[in-house]
Design a protein that fits this description.
Elements: H1 4-23, H2 27-30, H3 41-63, H4 81-98, H5 101-114
């Protein structure tokens, strides 16, 4: 069994590893099909960015005792699963359509804040 400190170090190490991997991707690489059916690599990056945005916000608020849902999302148990999926899907689509390469910088910045 690993300690909480070891888990934190593992997350930091993996965050750095994925950052190095993403930095080496070309614009052409971002348009390649990913292992996720019907998703390009850039779509996966947008998904990761949206996820980090959500978790970073929730963790930051939780530390201060704020248990409200992230801005733009309904409270757990209030909306249906489909509504929540649609909210998350739209967030990723907006990220994907708005930018790709800048998503890396945003993703890296958010992950560093969590480190």
């Amino acid at each position: 069994m690993t300690s909480p400190e070891q888990r934190v170090e593992l997350v930091k190490s993996e965050s750095q590893r994925i950052q190095r991997y993403l930095e080496d991707l070309s614009d052409k690489d971002l348009t390649q099909t990913s292992a996720c059916d019907a998703w390009e690599v850039g779509d996966v990056v947008a998904h990761l960015t949206a996820s980090v945005d959500l978790y970073e916000s929730a963790i930051s608020r939780g530390i201060t005792g704020d248990s409200n849902p992230p801005e733009g999302l309904s409270a757990a148990g209030v909306s249906s699963l489909m509504t929540r999926l649609e909210e998350n899907t739209q967030r990723v689509i907006n990220l994907r359509q708005g930018y790709r390469r800048p998503a890396f910088k945003r993703l890296f910045w958010k992950v560093r804040r969590l480190d």
